[in-house]
Design goal:
about 350 residues, alpha/beta, 2 domains, 3-stranded mixed β-sheet, 14 strands, globular, disordered C terminus, NAD(P)-binding protein, NAD(P)-bd_dom_sf, Epimerase_deHydtase, aldehyde dehydrogenase (NAD+) activity, NAD(P)-dependent_oxidoreduct
């Protein structure tokens, strides 16, 4: 029986790349499914509607009634939630709607949450040291608690999905890089933010602590979502619910080395005064310069975390990019930022508003 897949955040960098990958498939269980995509604006809806094979739904995901109507009317079986890990209500509305869908159809429904790896670092409030995605992450996040909106969303997803009879998975997203294949946003926010800020100050800055956060190329991350979706469609058993965590990374991003290469690239283009990298005088100044929330900037920009991915490899994930290949490609990343994305991202507007 044909199943219907809904991708939220389909106009974004990751969601758009997943959508493009799914639509490009010529033979697979995904090819045999109907693909739906949610967008926020009329402009996004019109642009995505021109793509063959996608059914566009313009909906406010914070409106519970609208979400329920969209999921039930379009008979959605699987939701890949890429839109936001910071707004708990969005995930709640989607899971509740999938619960209604399950009751109406009698068939199993699935929810894939997109979290972040930064939560599992000391800077992100993780006190337990090394963590594998096979560990009891849900129980430990409940012990930590606190106001972090992403952690609150993670806990809600697991608990509410279980209560609604919805099978849930949680993909922890690292630093993602590379040019995406979506129709709308082509780049992640990280390197374009560093490039934009450096040009504005005529100087490249780094933090006083070198983080080595987990990282993944967008194509490798998309392949993980595709693998999860394929196995869901084929009804293959996989860790889910409280055990359903998947760390979506395969190498590290050495922050100081990245900034050194960004400085070299920008100086060669005459966009900064010299090729040296200075240290930010304060985290407050850095947060203001990059339009990032000061409360979370340490976790976002200096975290490392002792994470060990296991589950993704167990189900057959085979990423292709390495740290060496990534560092060698930084100049291309800078050029892509200059060509494609020199506009401030609105990704962290919710957190910025909460600080005020």
């Amino acid at each position: 029986m044909t199943q219907n897949i809904l991708i939220t955040g389909a106009a974004g960098y990751i969601g758009g790349s997943i959508l493009a990958d799914f639509l490009s498939r010529t033979s697979s269980p995904i090819k045999d499914s109907r693909i739906y995509a949610t967008v926020r604006s009329e402009e996004q809806a019109q642009r995505l509607s021109k793509i063959d094979g996608v059914n566009v739904i313009q909906v406010d995901l914070s409106d519970e009634a609208s979400v329920s109507e969209a999921v039930l009317r379009n008979e959605i079986d699987i939701v890949l939630h890429i839109a936001s890990s910071m707004a708990t209500q969005l995930a709640a509305n989607l899971i509740n709607a999938l619960g209604e869908r399950r009751k109406a159809s009698g068939a199993q429904t699935y929810f894939v949450q997109s979290s972040v790896t930064a939560l599992l670092s000391i800077e992100g409030g993780w006190p337990y040291g090394e963590v594998k995605d096979t560990d009891a992450i849900f129980e430990k996040e409940k012990e930590i608690g606190g106001p972090n909106p992403v952690r609150q969303t993670n806990i809600l997803v697991t608990e509410l999905a279980k209560a609604q009879g919805v099978t849930s998975f949680n993909v922890a997203l690292p630093h993602v890089y590379g040019t995406g294949s979506g129709e709308w946003s082509k780049l992640s926010s990280s390197i374009p933010t560093y490039v934009r800020t450096s040009i504005a100050h005529k100087q490249v800055y780094k933090f006083d602590v070198e983080g080595r956060p987990p990282a993944v190329h967008i194509s490798d991350l998309v392949s993980l979502y595709a693998l999860l979706t394929t196995k869901i469609l084929q009804k293959e058993p996989m860790p889910s619910g409280e055990q359903g965590h998947y760390f979506g990374f395969n190498h590290r991003s050495p922050y100081w080395a990245v900034m050194d290469r960004i400085a070299t690239s920008l100086h060669a283009r005459g966009l900064v005064a010299d090729a040296s990298v200075k240290t930010w005088p304060s985290y407050k100044m850095a947060a203001e310069a990059m339009s990032l929330p000061e409360l979370y900037i340490r976790a976002m920009c200096t975290s490392t975390g002792d994470l060990v991915p296991v589950n993704a490899y167990k189900i057959g994930w085979q990423p292709e990019w390495t740290e060496e290949r990534y560092l060698a490609d930084i100049d291309a990343e800078v050029q892509a930022a200059l060509d494609l994305d020199m506009i401030k991202s609105s990704r962290y507007d919710t957190l910025l508003s909460a600080e005020k």
